[in-house]
Amino acid sequence: MTLLHARGLEKSYGRTPALRGVSLDIAHGEFVAVTGPSGCGKSTLLHSLAGILAPDAGEVHFDGRRLDDLTEDARSRLRRTEFGVLFQFGGLVAELTAAENVALPLLLGGRSRREARTTALTWLERLGVADVADSLPGETSGGQQQRCAAARALVTEPRVLFADEPTGALDALAGEQLLGLLSRLTREQGTTVVLVTHEPRVAGYADREIVLRDGEVDSTGLGVTGFDTAATRLTAGNRGAA
């Protein structure tokens, strides 16, 4: 079942085009990696699918609802309830502890402080950073901050997780831990994952790879309609080992 549906997405920054008519479908419970060289439009595509950016032209639909026609408030509510967003450098609130940062989406959604903290601690444990629960971001390492940010993005158990270079600030072991968790979420909870990366190793965890070049889907790569046999075998092997 298609969960995210985009057609003819165009986006420019001034006179510089970032997306040139991108179309794609992403299924419920699918783990998709968006890859391509720097400046090809990967992050712009991710932000358009997540409702962070409004495209200049084209349509984005989530579960039958057209996102690009929603108000900013409506898109923000959607990101608090249905979507989780994880950026490369986390973006934690400096004045809040790790547990408070992770609990924040739950509190905004009306959960009690006790319930929100309990759930936040569970996710910090799953990401291997429960020991910094009561530390401020400035008192932790960059890798610990990124894992706390991942816990915050996942604490609401979103239907879609959008991740923009999520392992860029992590060492190899922490990166493997995070990717393994994302892979398990797609299998066990049906979470859809859309991940931007320039690393083949990271893309190998996905079910499918969408390659962008100059703001367009590269039909010679692993585009929206087909799979490269060798890469598909590698992906299946990585997911099975996670």
Automatic annotation (TrEMBL):
PROSITE patterns named among the record's database cross-references: ABC_TRANSPORTER_2
Keyword Nucleotide-binding annotated: yes
Keywords: ATP-binding, Nucleotide-binding, Transport
Residue stretches making up the ABC transporter domain: 4-239
Signal sequence annotation: none
Keyword Ribonucleoprotein assigned: no
Protein name from the UniProt record: ABC transporter ATP-binding protein
Species in which this protein is naturally found: Streptomyces hazeniae
